[in-house]
């Protein structure tokens, strides 16, 4: 079959999962049609700010980490009860999915570096990780760097076509229930496109009045890092896809409260890397209250147990994120943007509230001693500030943060071949999925840095498998 006569691989969604699938499909000899409902490509992936996880990478070795055999265990621990209680009756094989995710993490990082020339040479610790394994570049945010590089490479191929502002309405199925294409609207007209389908349309954390309200009404009123838009899950549900963990929604502990629009629902994420590089969190009383590198769920819960800020129109907390000069320098790739946007500012220690100065001194003493007896933090990043009067002229970076809805761990049940599953565990032919639309990997709580990773690992699998269906190899 020639490329001119074969059906394309249709990729729904232009985040990293869809882009990874598209690239692998092209390499396997398929043509690719990508449809995305947003006016610009990149999805939520382009906003990802902490990095991508990789265990056993060359960059860890350069950083002095000679062995990393705990990624699987860290992921399982973070997944919590949903993983440990999963038995043979579960639609998804969680052990197999996590094994694939973690075992291919090193090759995922290498792929991005070698195929696209992306800088991922900085390795940092994030909450819930037993070791530093989250990779990013020295400049810019990792999501933008990665997505931009893939879009550029894909755009160079005449066999790739991206259509933005294209709303997929439904999947086309044949008499046997196999998926054979999509129906979509674009510029006011409805079209049909036939081919193998990779569904990578993202999660539903921005669907405040729809799926989020249905599965997690207790989160009503929280701001979000996601644009306000409905989830695409109903399209898969209509053809018999099974869903798992739909009530498992991640609340990220740190979204920036913009002083210009403090009650805006959409908020920029305060990257977890800011805490990984040494940043601390302070309560409205100016006191530390948590191990800043605990899991996202642990830190979020600690914040939400405190009194809320006084606003009646929004569900927010008054928490300060503070980085000392060493942490500021290490996180400069992020800070330039945050300071430009007015989300963080620099202040001399002497100009802080007395309670905050006391907290800074107390933490500096803990760092110097190597033991955080108050909260058990084990990694202090690049914090260099010493305690006492000698630090008063030093400049720290501070911003106000609050918990936000960020990521949905639940989604369509799928397997290691990225095939979407029915309730009886049988795959729906002609359909693959990857990224946040899928469920079963992260359980109760996703580790920071594993979102971009799952997009690469399972996006690549989905793209290569879909290509086999249309190329016939």
Automatic annotation (TrEMBL):
Domain FAD-dependent oxidoreductase 2 FAD-binding residues, every copy: 9-452
Pfam families: FAD_binding_2
Gene3D superfamilies according to UniProt: FAD/NAD(P)-binding domain (3.50.50.60), Succinate dehydrogenase/fumarate reductase flavoprotein, catalytic domain (3.90.700.10)
Reaction catalyzed: succinate + NAD(+) = fumarate + NADH + H(+)
Keywords of this entry: FAD, Flavoprotein, Oxidoreductase
Top-level class of the enzyme under EC nomenclature: oxidoreductase
EC number, as in UniProt: 1.3.1.6
A GO molecular-function annotation: fumarate reductase (NADH) activity
Names of the cofactor(s): FAD
Cofactor binding note: Binds 1 FAD per monomer.
Function as written in the Swiss-Prot or TrEMBL entry: Irreversibly catalyzes the reduction of fumarate to succinate.
Family to which the UniProt record says this protein belongs: Belongs to the FAD-dependent oxidoreductase 2 family. FRD/SDH subfamily.
Full protein name: Fumarate reductase
Organism: Neoarthrinium moseri
């Amino acid at each position: 079959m020639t490329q001119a006569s074969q059906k394309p691989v249709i990729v729904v969604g232009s985040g990293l999962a869809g882009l990874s699938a598209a690239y692998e499909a092209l390499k396997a000899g398929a043509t690719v049609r990508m449809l995305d409902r947003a006016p610009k490509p990149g999805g939520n992936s382009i906003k990802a700010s902490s990095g991508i996880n990789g265990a056993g990478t060359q960059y860890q070795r350069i950083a002095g980490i000679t062995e990393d055999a705990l990624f699987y265990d860290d992921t399982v621990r973070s997944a919590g009860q949903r993983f440990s209680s999963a038995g043979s009756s579960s639609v998804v094989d969680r052990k197999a999915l996590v094994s694939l995710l973690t075992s291919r993490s090193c090759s995922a990082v290498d792929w991005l570096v070698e195929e696209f020339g992306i800088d991922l040479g900085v390795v940092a610790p994030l909450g819930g990780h037993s070791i530093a394994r989250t990779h990013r570049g020295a400049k810019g945010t990792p999501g933008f760097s990665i997505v931009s590089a893939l879009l550029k490479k894909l755009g160079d191929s005449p066999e790739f076509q991206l259509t933005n502002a294209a709303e997929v309405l439904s999947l086309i199925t044949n008499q046997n229930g196999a998926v054979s294409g999509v129906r979509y609207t674009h510029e006011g007209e409805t079209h049909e496109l036939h081919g193998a389908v990779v569904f990578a349309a993202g999660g539903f954390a921005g669907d405040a009045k729809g799926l989020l309200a249905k599965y997690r009404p207790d989160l009503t009123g929280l701001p979000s890092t996601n644009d306000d838009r409905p989830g695409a899950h109903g399209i898969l549900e209509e053809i018999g896809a099974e869903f798992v963990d739909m009530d498992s929604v991640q609340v990220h502990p740190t979204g920036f409260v913009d002083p210009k629009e403090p009650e805006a629902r959409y908020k920029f994420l305060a990257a977890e890397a800011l805490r990984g590089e040494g940043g601390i969190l302070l309560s409205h009383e100016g006191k530390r209250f948590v191990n800043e590198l605990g899991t996202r769920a642990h830190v979020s819960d600690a914040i939400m147990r405190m009194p809320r800020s006084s606003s009646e129109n929004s569900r927010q907390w008054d928490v300060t994120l503070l980085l000392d000069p060493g942490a500021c320098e290490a996180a400069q790739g992020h800070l330039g943007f945050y300071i430009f946007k007015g989300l963080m500012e620099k202040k001399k220690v002497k100009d802080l509230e007395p309670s905050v100065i006391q907290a800074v001194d107390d933490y500096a003493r803990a760092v110097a001693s190597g033991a955080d007896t108050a909260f058990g933090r084990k990694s202090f990043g690049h914090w260099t500030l010493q305690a006492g009067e000698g630090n008063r002229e030093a400049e720290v970076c501070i911003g106000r943060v609050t918990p936000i809805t960020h990521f949905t761990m639940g989604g369509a049940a799928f397997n290691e071949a990225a095939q979407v599953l029915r309730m009886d565990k049988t795959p729906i032919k002609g359909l693959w999925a990857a990224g946040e639309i899928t469920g079963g990997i992260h359980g109760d709580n996703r580790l920071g840095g594993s979102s971009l990773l799952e997009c690469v690992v399972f996006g690549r699998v989905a793209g290569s498998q879909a290509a086999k269906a249309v190329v016939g190899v």
